[in-house]
Amino acid sequence: MYTFSNRLRITSFILMIVGVLGIGYGFLSAPSTIEEAKAIVASTQAHHAGGHEQAHDSAAHHENTTAQTDAHADDHAAHDAHTLSKLQNRPWSAFLIAAFFFFMLSVGALVFYAVQHVAQAGWSPVLFRIMEGVTAYLVPGAIILYVFYVLTAGFHMNHMYIWMDSDIMAADKILQLKSGYLNIPFFLIRSLLFLGGWCFYRYYVVKQSRLQDEAEDYTPYKKIFKSSVFFLLFFFVTESVMAWDWFMGLEPHWYSTLFAWYIFASMFVSGVTVIAMVLVYLKSKGLVDFVNDSHLHDLGKYIFGLSIFWSYLWFGQFMLIWYANIPEESAYFMTRVEHYGIVFFGMLVLNFVFPFLMLMNTDFKRRGWFIIMTGVVVLIGHYMDVFQWVMPSTVGELWSFGIPEISSVLFFLGLFIFVTFNAIAKMPSLLEKRNPLIEESKHFHY
Amino acid sequence: MASKVIQALYNDDDILMSAVKRVRDAHHHIDEVYTPFPVHGLDKAMGLAPTRLAICSFLYGCVGLAVAIAMMNFIMIEDWPQNIGGKPSFSFIENSPAFIPIMFEMTVFFAAHLMVITFYMRSKLWPFKEAENPDIRTTDDHFLMEIVLNNNEEELTKLLVDTGAVEVKVSEKH
């Protein structure tokens, strides 16, 4: 039985308040006119004058060539409007990145939970209550994301998804060919369907898991098993749709077949990492003495293996496009390599090299502080991953990492901590009573 | 004198495990245990040191990675930097995505094969090697514990029979 410690509750509230203030500041400081946008671009360029010499050169070159044409005034107006919409996108993008990042932690944990049930794993039932706690963020996270998409698609409050703009759609033949899929009502219906489906599964299994505690037979357990099988089928279809809608849709002229699995790998590894970190925290409080270091070892192996799986998919996608270098495909990576080099390649160090070297040793995987340290690095790495799914497509080369981004992370971090530990505190016990595999799990030893 | 050994045969791995623990508690040195299949936890019960084969494997993997990098850097970048289908061969890093599949495979190849060879050498296994099997039944359904004798045949025989051995015999060490 866990009681929500006051210190943690206050920390989460402070994070949320600071985050809300920062998010508000981000929206207020976004430019509303072209003049303001120009001033922001000018001040950041003056700031980084040294590093942007090349950019200046190419800009000057660009102006020389366009000056020879009659249409150069139109070009400039279009360029300015483009700059303005990019800068206006920044607080929205920062919000989406953090909102999705924390949402994907709970989705990843939910899939892991379902997989453990379907596989009838003998080692993990002692961790089910912790997983249920981590997935508690699913519902608030889904509501926030859905509201965000209603504001984006229904009320056109930002320019993140260019296909949602009817003027652009009217002038773009390629997008018109995709309008059977990329249209606003269908988009919102799809999002509602998969978010609703995931939340419903979570509600259903947690309810059955409580019923199993009090049951005389194993009917709830069998229901959990069956619903998990169908959830996984449903999930892997809808997860692909989610990846196409929310992230590939940011770049509607580009497509990649691998993209949805790549995004899933990120979700899965960060979900498992959070389960391990919450476990280490609760164990440090002495609340889960039935969990031994073999359980932690298994979670460490999952973080290790799934980090490599993520790297494999990242490389599979990058290398195929780099190798063939078909312009319509490589445009996606051009922005990322040119303007986001530190994020794009830095995350490889955090998501692959670091966990690979740290978690290779068996003894290290059994140490709580080692899991926490690697987990923090892996989570920062996957935040960077989400960052480079969104930012290059919406803000482009005008990105920076400042108050809007940090405060969005703080807000959702606070909310995640609050929801997760509140849910764990409300559980009748941290150990399932009548799970048929619970005895085996308690004596699990590797 | 130390050329004689006492051999105790068991027909159950649980009995073998408890026998190993009792013999160790009585401070006799177990020379060898022969089993038809891996008995989980036997190495810990016997007090064997953990294997360092994984560390070897990691180092071999590093060698494989270095070989792959050195080889491709020399061939593709330094020796003959040809333009093949527009791939940038100006520096190793520029063309590195194309090299990574080979770097990966070479790492795995070296790590796996050299580790297996190390295993064969350390456990003295090779073709035409004469089998060191004290009793042919140990490859089928019997477990055999072997202890070096130090003029304590009677005491050891009693202890081993006590632990549930189905057969105890003294033989020359080979």
From TrEMBL, chain A:
Key words of the record: Membrane, Transmembrane, Transmembrane helix
Region Disordered: start-end pairs: 51-73
Transmembrane residue ranges: 12-28, 92-115, 136-164, 184-204, 224-247, 259-282, 302-324, 339-357, 369-386, 406-425
Compositional bias (Basic and acidic residues): 51-64
Protein name: Quinol:cytochrome c oxidoreductase quinone-binding subunit 2
Annotated organism of origin: Galbibacter marinus
Automatic annotation (TrEMBL), chain B:
Signal sequence residues: none
Domain of life: Bacteria
InterPro entries registered for this protein in UniProt: ActD (IPR021776)
Keywords in alphabetical order: Membrane, Transmembrane, Transmembrane helix
Pfam families: ActD
Keyword Lipoprotein annotated: no
Membrane-crossing residue ranges in chain numbering: 53-77, 97-120
Lyase found in the keyword field: no
PANTHER family linked: LIPOPROTEIN-RELATED, QUINOL:CYTOCHROME C OXIDOREDUCTASE MEMBRANE PROTEIN
UniProt name for this protein: Quinol:cytochrome c oxidoreductase membrane protein
Protein's organism: Galbibacter marinus
